[in-house]
Amino acid sequence: MNSLIEALRGGLIVSCQAYPGEPMNTPETMRLVALEAEAGGAVAIRAQGLTDVALIAASVGVPVIGLVKEGADGVYITPTLDLALRTAQAGAAIVAVDGTRRPRPDGLALAEVVRRFRAAAPGVALMADCGSLDDALAAQAAGVDVLGTTLAGYTLDRPAGPGPDFELLDQMVAACRLPVILEGRVWEPDQAAKALRRGAHAVCVGSAITHPLRLTRRFAAALAPAEGRSLEGVVPDGARLTEPVTAPTPAAAGVTAVASALAPVAAADIGGTKIAVALVTPDGALLTEPVTAPTPAAAGAAGVIQRTVELLRPLVADGAGLVGVSSAGVIDSDTGAVVGATDHIAGWAGTALGPELAQALGCPVRVLGDGHAFAVGEAAFGAGHGLDSVLVVAVGSGVGGSYVRHGRPLTGSHWAGGHLGHVAVPQAEGLPCLCGRTGHVEAVASGWGLLANYRRLGGDRAVPSAKEVCELAGSDSLARQAVETAGAALGAAVGGLANVLDPALVIVAGSLTGAGPLWEAALRGAYLDNLMPVIEQTPLSLAQAGTWPALRGAALYATLVVG
């Protein structure tokens, strides 16, 4: 194993990965890119996804550093022991895992993952992707073989600068006995050479070599000011620099065909507990891994805006000329103001969110309510791709969503459209809703409503959440009744909404879509029972858009409004 790591010394590792929604995101394309990188002198290939790892490992003659990205935030780089072992079985000579000190989804400490991995996959090395010196020291103590600076700037420990984190490299080289690979935001050959001079064992480069879409965006953004043009046709103060070029919108093909030619957007999703940001193309591809931070809700609007600006500023510096924001609260999308909100974020209602972000970042900002942004993302990049109208229902802690037509959400006269959880259904008759009324579908179909109904039926009050109620549904008759009631109530509400709106498709998304077959059967049965005959063929699909739909929807919406 030591000889394998030693063979990488002083060499270039090329990361051959494409992002969801990009034309190059196929295993065969990544195999060809890896062969090109090997021919160019790469000493190893870093590849993501079991299929890509297997195909590339069978094609190249250099070691493959394999990983699997799973999940939306937190620990998502080969986050479980099972995925690490499957990556090794696919042919990876080195398996990269999250090397931070954050809790892992399978509940295992990194040291336990290393111990079990060693027993099951002898001869395969482990690389720890770290975000700080403390991460690196903990990963070294856990027994990994090599350390990487991969997550520098992607956790809260260190800021994300425009280039490599040489300061962290210096710290890790000085304090750790294991080899250190510099990875992350390496754009120039001089930076790679500098890393070796500072003690890096090897250097891993990705986007600067293997990502033509992002490279093209960088060149185009650099050239646009020199030619007196803006890629969006709009400068920060709103004055048009070119006459608008128009073409018929291909409604049947969706709006992404028009958006795909435009520049990337710095997207933010501001929630009550966390803020996430990423650089996103208008056609839904994430050009950077999302960076998340806790929402400083107790600090009020000023604190939340300050944290959001800190997270977005590197993306604007990296070439984004437009910001799209998904935000908690009722949002006036014309002005970007928060016109209504709960007190979860202190003083959030009345905040001039869009204007304050625009002033701080120096570029146009467009804000959309988070339910609408989520729906736009699901409609454009999930099962609704190519359709002119989609009803998206999100069911989790609450029930919300939006009706999206030609990429635009129906926000309503008071910007309160999308409160789908407050449709009356017979299953909730007389039951209190959090809005202060009674009889609304959220009272039985949301996460809190399902749990409350289970307890109301006489269920075990020690059961802590809707998730556990759903898990009990196969053996506990009261849990089964609560789960089926939740599904039927939601199906009845969605069927009624479909009768009013006549969408081409209904998408149901959110955490409760994993409630199980009993819930889904009740949902679909009640939905069909409530449809008028003339629209009874309208399909209902569970969400397919993948991760970060609100970020992707905010980026698309901002592009449509400004572009």
What topology emerges from the helices and strands here?
Elements: H1 2-6, E1 12-16, H2 27-39, E2 44-48, H3 50-57, E3 64-67, H4 81-89, E4 94-98, H5 110-120, E5 125-129, H6 133-142, E6 146-148, H7 166-175, E7 180-183, H8 189-197, E8 202-205, H9 207-210, H10 212-226, H11 256-259, E9 265-270, E10 274-280, E11 291-294, H12 300-317, E12 323-327, E13 330-332, E14 337-340, H13 353-361, E15 365-369, H14 370-381, E16 389-395, E17 399-405, E18 408-409, H15 442-445, H16 447-456, H17 466-472, H18 477-501, E19 505-509, H19 517-530, E20 540-542, H20 549-562
Parallel strand pairs: 1-2, 1-8, 2-3, 3-4, 4-5, 5-6, 6-7, 7-8, 9-12, 12-15, 16-19, 19-20
Antiparallel strand pairs: 9-10, 10-11, 13-14, 16-17, 17-18
Helix pairs in contact: 2-3, 12-13, 14-20, 16-18, 17-18, 18-19
What do the pLDDT scores average to? 88
Q: What is the CA-CA span between the terminal residues?
A: 53 Å
Helix content: 25-40%
Q: What would you report as the Rg, rounded to the nearest angstrom?
A: 25 Å
Put simply, the count of helices is 20
* Structural class by SSE content: alpha/beta
Strand order of the largest sheet: 1-2-3-4-5-6-7-8
Question: What does the model show?
Answer:
Strand 2, helix 3 and strand 3 form a beta-alpha-beta unit. The strands form four sheets. An eight-stranded parallel barrel has the order 1-2-3-4-5-6-7-8, surrounded by six helices. With 563 residues, the chain is α/β, with parallel strands linked by helices. It contains 20 helices and 20 strands.
